[in-house]
Design brief:
By secondary structure, this protein is mainly alpha-helical. It is about 65% helix and about 5% strand. The protein has 27 helices and four strands.
């Protein structure tokens, strides 16, 4: 009996064509698409209800999206992207297809946030189509309930360990962060909250694998190139899947598979991978990013194996049962079984940076395998029991992730809003025709490059030299803990022409401390701009807006 529909397989298969009346989707699939679309807008809608001007960021970490905004503004003016978060001379060497398209839209007149947010419907569509087509390929049409269960798990499952650890208080905040980190890398919904290029790359992967299986070599190679350009970790996973399956079939089968399709896909993966490798060796900013994003570079970035095992267990446990059963021998069924192993390999290899991103997309193969494995031991599940399991795997986790998002906003660590007085102050910095960069607290540094077109002394963690040291100094200046001569010497060392103080309560008035080195002070309600007297080093450190 079908677990979701309550029909026998033959009845379900017969009814399927009649029920697919909306763009080829049945009611469950259509409902999943509607729910996914709503999920993608939840964080943004919650922010919009406050009635304040939005910065445009809607992810758990606004700093990441504000970095993307800076890249879009760079791409709009130069095509290539440079580092705007170090207040130092540098070159522009980074080309990115997604940000280039958004940059083109910004050049045509769209705001930077809107030029990025237009990727959201694209990301939702690619996520849904990639998941749906892969699930349909690997679970037969006669197993309608299994298809539905797998699709819902792929799109909405949030590993229960994250909310269980948080709500029980087991291990305190550090342990909660670890489990939230692991589960967040796996959860498809998190990609739609600010990480739109990740969503596109992750769910292009199954479409590339389907194209490869169907001998559409050009599409597969082009898709592999795009996946790797957007997310190198997923490109490496693709390469390992194809090499493993083709190697297995070459060793086991009497008929040797042709090597040209695999070679074409490998070329597609290698071109952007080689580009990123060259950037990491030849560009100073990318060398810095490589060190900043290395495994364990931050003490919080610790994934004990037992934590990984507890997180993935609800899917990995039943998925393991699928490995006991013989497959139909098709290329895709073999690729499905290799996929989780390829993820582990990419995670463990001492290549590249930030290996945690290897887990992005892991929910897709594990969900399909979990349904296949469960079906081998639970052949006639009750629809109510299946619905309860799906609810357990999604609803508490969603409530927890919304709670985490709300706490992130309340902590005021990242600028989810830009207040009117701040906008006027930032516009004044942008309008000044003189070259130079800006010093502000970390909070403001995240948004300064995209709002003003100018460089900032501190901002995105990966792109700011000695981020922790600069954070202590920049925040210490605006909260009043660095005073007098020390404050003035700090400003001089940064080579900044402007010091910006945002509207958060409790920040210091810097005029008494910086007065001897100031040209003037500009007040914009709750925001302030301190203009430092001209020095030649200011122009050497940074140019005019977008220069």
């Amino acid at each position: 009996m079908s677990a979701v529909t309550g029909r026998t397989p033959s009845q379900a298969g017969a009814a399927l064509p009649l029920r697919r009346r909306w763009f080829g989707l049945d009611l469950v699939e259509l409902g999943a698409l509607v729910a996914l679309s709503g999920l993608s807008l939840m964080a943004l809608a919650a922010l919009a209800t406050k009635g304040r001007p939005l910065s445009g960021a809607d992810g758990l970490l606004a700093a990441d999206q504000l970095q993307y905004f800076a890249w879009i503004r760079e791409a709009a003016h130069h095509g290539l992207i440079g580092n705007r978060f170090d207040l130092a001379p540098g070159s522009r060497t980074f080309a990115h297809p997604g940000f280039a398209l958004s940059g083109g839209l910004h050049a045509l007149g769209l705001s930077v946030p809107l030029a990025y947010l237009l990727w959201k419907p694209v990301a939702v569509l690619v996520t849904f189509v990639g998941a749906l087509r892969y699930v349909r390929r690997l679970i037969g049409a006669e197993h309608t309930g299994q298809r539905h269960a797998a699709l819902l798990l792929v799109l909405f499952a949030i590993m229960p360990a994250s909310w269980l650890v948080a709500w029980t208080g087991w291990g305190g905040k550090p342990r909660q962060y670890t489990f939230d980190f692991i589960s967040g890398e796996m959860w498809s919904g998190q990609y739609l909250w600010g990480y739109l290029m990740t969503a596109v790359a992750v769910f292009l992967m199954p479409l590339v694998l389907l194209a490869y299986e169907r001998h559409r070599t050009g599409w597969a190679a082009s898709g592999a190139l795009l996946v790797t350009w957007l997310q190198p970790w997923q490109g490496a996973t693709l390469a390992f899947i194809v090499l493993a399956v083709e190697g297995w079939r070459w060793a086991r089968g009497p008929a040797r598979p042709p090597f040209r399709p695999a070679l074409a896909l490998m070329v597609g993966v290698t071109i952007p991978a080689a580009y990123y490798f060259a950037l990491s060796r030849l560009d100073r900013a990318w060398e810095l990013a490589g060190r900043s994003n290395a495994a364990g570079a931050m003490s919080e970035w610790s994934w004990p194996w037992w934590a990984i095992a507890l997180t993935v267990a609800p899917l990995a446990g039943p998925a393991a049962l699928a490995y006991r059963e013989p497959t139909d021998g098709s290329w895709q069924q073999q690729a499905l079984r290799v996929w989780p192993l390829a993820v582990i390999l990419v995670y463990l290899l001492p290549l590249g940076t930030f290996p945690y991103h290897a887990f992005q997309g892991l929910a897709l193969p594990l969900s399909v395998l979990a349904v296949q494995g469960a079906a081998t031991v639970w052949r006639r599940p009750s629809p109510l029991a299946v619905a309860a399991i799906l609810a357990f795997m999604s609803l508490p986790g969603l409530a927890h992730k919304l709670e985490v998002s709300l706490n992130s906003v309340r902590s005021a660590g990242d600028p989810f809003w830009i207040f009117p007085d701040e906008i006027r102050a930032l516009d004044a910095i942008e309008a000044d025709p003189r070259p130079g960069g800006v010093l502000g607290p970390v909070y403001a540094g995240y948004m300064l490059p995209y709002r003003t077109g100018r460089e900032t002394w501190i901002g995105a963690l990966s792109w700011t030299p000695d981020w922790k040291g600069r954070q202590k100094l920049a925040d210490g200046l605006v909260d009043g803990s660095i005073r007098g001569t020390s404050a003035r010497e700090l400003v001089r060392r940064t080579h900044a022409r402007w010091v910006f103080v945002d509207c958060r309560p409790g920040l210091a008035d810097l005029e008494p401390e910086l007065g001897p080195i100031l040209e003037r002070t500009l007040r914009f309600g709750c925001a302030s701009v301190y203009v430092v007297r001209d020095r030649p080093d200011m122009a050497r450190a940074a140019g005019r807006p977008d220069q």
